[in-house]
Specification:
By secondary structure, this protein is of the alpha+beta class. It is built from 17 helices and 18 strands. The protein folds into 5 domains: about 170 residues, Beta-Lactamase; about 70 residues, no CATH class; about 100 residues, Beta-Lactamase (2-Layer Sandwich); about 80 residues, Helix Hairpins, CATH 1.10.287; about 210 residues, Histidine kinase-like ATPase, C-terminal domain (Heat Shock Protein 90, 2-Layer Sandwich), CATH 3.30.565.10. The strands form 4 sheets. A 6-stranded antiparallel sheet has the order 2-1-6-5-4-3. It starts with a helix and ends in a 9-residue tail after the last helix. Its EC number is 2.7.13.3.
Length: about 700
Amino acid sequence: MKQTLEKRIILFSLVILTLTILLNTGMDIIVFRRDFAQEMLLRSQSLGIALKGTIEKVLALGLDIRDMSGLSEKCRELAQSDPEVEYCVITNTDGKPLFSNDPFFSSTSFSQSLFVPSKDEPDRKQLSREIQTSKGIYHNTSIPIRSFDTKAVAYINIGFPQSEIDKKVSTIIVRSFIVLCVSFMASFGLVVFFVKRSIVSPISTLLDGLTKISQGDFNIRIPDFPMHELNELGVNINYMSNALEHRDNELRKNYEELETTHTQLHESYIRLEHLSLDLEKSEELYKRMLEDAGDAIFVLDGNRTVIIANKMAEDFLGYPASQIVGQHISSLLLLLKAGNILQLLKTFQTSVSGTYIIDEITITNGNGRSLIGKIHASSITSGETNLLQVIIRDITKERETLLNLEQSTAGLSRLNKMKDSFLGLASHEIKTPLTVIMGYAELLLTDMKGQLNETTVEMVQNIASAATRLDNIVKDMIDVSMIDQKQLELKLEAIDINSVIEASLREMRFFFALRKQKVQTQLYPTIPAIKGDPIRLMQLMSNVIGNAIKFTPDGGTITITTAVIQNTRPPQTSIDSVWSYNECKKSDCYVEIIIHDNGIGIDPEDQTRIFEKFYEAGNIEEHSSGKVAFKSRGAGLGLSIAKGVVEMHGGEIWVVSPGYNPEKFPGSSFYIRFPIQSIAEENVTSSANPSFYTELNLNKNNHN
């Protein structure tokens, strides 16, 4: 069938191509013959009309055409001007030749002419016909020559042979035959190629695929074809193959599942028997767990009647289960003398809708004890029945413990107030005898020094030093007491914080030299003024810098930086973000002071407690004595006073440290911030009230 289809398609294509090309060539030859003959006639007419015009001009002078000379030469010139024109003959009205370019045509009669209307001169007549001579057939064109009175007196006959047309047509036939052969071969080759490639080959592939599918090979895949219809047929065959393969697999799978299902049904029946036994055991276990639960558990039905109560419910309520089960919840609450019964009933009603409720209940149980319980109520489902589960936990002891803690907290608060009062009272009471001791010691060391021996002078000096240290501690205790009681008064003025830092560094210059430590400063040059108390700010800086000196080893470095920043945490440094004074008028800006050391560091749990009164970080036994000795121990009031001074100025202070390590010295950074917005609003500059700095003889140089 494949060969028959191919041969039929090729034969049909051959016949169609042959007929089409032959008909097209025949039509072209006929049209060319007609057009060429018409062209020759038109050319003859054009030549005759030109000669006619010349002759009619002479006739208009009154001459007779027979008397005109040179017309034979004119005819020869006309015939020679067009190689395809065979003759030019001027005849009279009877068709007898008068003048001719060739003597052969002088004896030819042109009397049987057929006149047809002229397209160029519709008011005249022209003659067109075929003339049979001994030389052959000629196509003749007759053009009338008219006298001045428009009467035809002669005819110009111009003719060309039929052989010229036949010659041209023969040439066209030969050329058309060559083109026909070439076109036929190319077209037939293309048709054969197209048939084999686009029709026969795809059909053969489709037939082979269908044969394999019919034999049970569902993995066959038809490739894509360039023709849409055949490609769609291939896609559908692939789809059919996939569907058949899927159905075959499903049938096999269903058969296997059928066998498996039969086995599973047998196994399920056996498991069902085991599950029935396990269910009975689980029910027994649930009942046992319900009975042994540490909380009182009730289960209410849809009518709010108690249907289950565990053993703990009997102990909590003080009634046996026989008196609890079967009672309505409202009757049970009345029996227990519960407080706020209406609220509890509303709570239970809300729980039935699926909301998990936590509430409290106060009861007097059957043993006469007042108990407090925390209720956990939730809705549960048993088949199509909605039940309410109520769990009550006894929190009586927890409430008693909480009450005791509150009382203890109140007692500690009173003790703290008594401690603050004691500190204030003790500091003031110690101040008076301490002043007397310091006065007499100074008197002995000045006015009566000559009356004392060297040993006594040394003893008095030790007394004076100890009294001075005790005086500083008393002053710190007084400051702490005044800060706690918010009685510390500040004398506020515009302060240049850079000048305060430089003054503090000069005062502590001796301690830096004693410990061989270096000080580096990075002070922002155009820092705006803040409103503060210069004395207290000096005390603040001395306490924080002194703390850095104590916990930095000999030869260490302390860096002090100032900047203008926004109030953001974690802290920024002057390198992170520097703000101008004009920006601070529009933003919530702060003056930031960073005091960084490369000392032993502070543990994270101590970083918030070091600002508490009398708190010493680290192991106290490792601390040494002395004001600025390495790891020296003080009264634990310096940083507490610093925090109080900062907060009284509306600022904040905190410390950042990687941790405590006396071997690697991770260091610590104390951050102090003061608001400057109010100063910016009052247009206070850093040059305001310079008297304080003049008294301290400050300069603007950094200390190293």
